[in-house]
Write a structure and sequence with these properties.
With 251 residues, the protein is of the alpha+beta class. The protein has two domains: 141 residues, Jelly Rolls, CATH 2.60.120; 87 residues, Winged helix-like DNA-binding domain superfamily/Winged helix DNA-binding domain (Arc Repressor Mutant, subunit A), CATH 1.10.10. It has ten helices and eleven strands. Strands 1-8-3-6 form a four-stranded antiparallel sheet. A four-stranded antiparallel sheet has the order 2-7-4-5. Strand 4 and strand 5 form a beta hairpin. Helix 4 crosses helix 5 and helix 6 packs antiparallel against helix 9.
Length: 251
């Protein structure tokens, strides 16, 4: 498949990624022309820690976890990517190895944008550089929020904050949302820096307080505003349990 065919076939997929949706046709077509479509099965390694990626990756369908391993082999999930997310941008811009590994947690489709193609596009079109800066800035913003949550929020607050973010993305009305957990509870718990047992206990406590309703992997949020208030104003006793409910982050 030549560049013209790839641009024609992959441009609609690139437009499905929010960061590239508003990009002009010329730079978007050029980027799509240097892309490849990749299919990954559940459990397949997308990128190994220390490897040098051939390009950054846009998740079209499925779920991918980004994780790190401690020297003892303990896994810590750093992020769970859902469709529309992009990863590997910093590695190709810095020309550095991947600092984490990426694994597909269900059947997934990924659009891989070649490293040299994106470098050329950045030099040719300032708007492409702006898109890449926004992607990197978004990653930094999420990492700062996650660090703040881990250090300053209790386990219950972290779980409520996670559900709040998911709910705001899927809200049916201004104040009501239905959330389908994007991964197994153990993976989400690792991402929140809590144990799976703590996850289940705190989820049922939120339900006991009337903040959520549980239907297996589906979580009903009657009021996003009430849940947001809980995240910001949890009782001081729960804040004091922040470190007690967390397990150490691998170094």
């Amino acid at each position: 498949m030549n560049d013209i065919d790839r641009a024609f076939n992959f441009l609609p997929h690139l437009r499905d990624i929010p960061a590239f949706a508003a990009l002009d046709d010329e730079p978007a077509g050029f980027i799509a022309g240097g892309s490849q479509l990749r299919v990954a099965t559940r459990g397949q390694m997308i990128c190994e820690k220390g490897s040098r990626p051939s390009g950054f990756q846009c998740l079209l369908e499925g779920r991918i976890k980004l994780a790190a391993l401690s020297p003892l082999g303990t896994e810590r999930v750093l992020d769970i990517l859902q469709p529309g997310r992009v990863f590997g941008v910093a590695a190709i811009l810095l020309d550095e190895p991947c600092p984490v590994f990426a694994e597909s947690i269900c059947d997934s489709r990924i659009l891989v944008v070649g490293r040299e193609r994106i470098h050329t596009a950045i030099a040719e079109w300032p708007e492409v550089a702006a898109v890449m800066l926004k992607l990197v800035a978004g990653d930094v913003h999420r990492l700062v929020h996650d660090l703040e949550a881990c250090c300053l929020m209790s386990a219950r607050q972290r779980l409520a904050d996670f559900l709040l973010k998911q709910g705001r993305c899927s809200a049916e009305t201004n104040d009501h949302a239905v959330v389908v957990l994007p991964a197994a509870k153990a993976l989400i718990a690792s991402n929140l820096n809590i144990s799976a047992e703590t996850f289940s206990r705190e989820l049922h406590e939120l339900a006991h307080r009337g903040l959520v309703e549980i239907e297996r992997r589906t979580i009903l949020i009657p009021s996003l505003d009430r849940l947001a208030t809980f995240v910001l104003e949890a009782p001081s006793g729960e804040r004091g349990q922040t470190q007690a409910n967390a397990f150490p982050v691998p170094s």
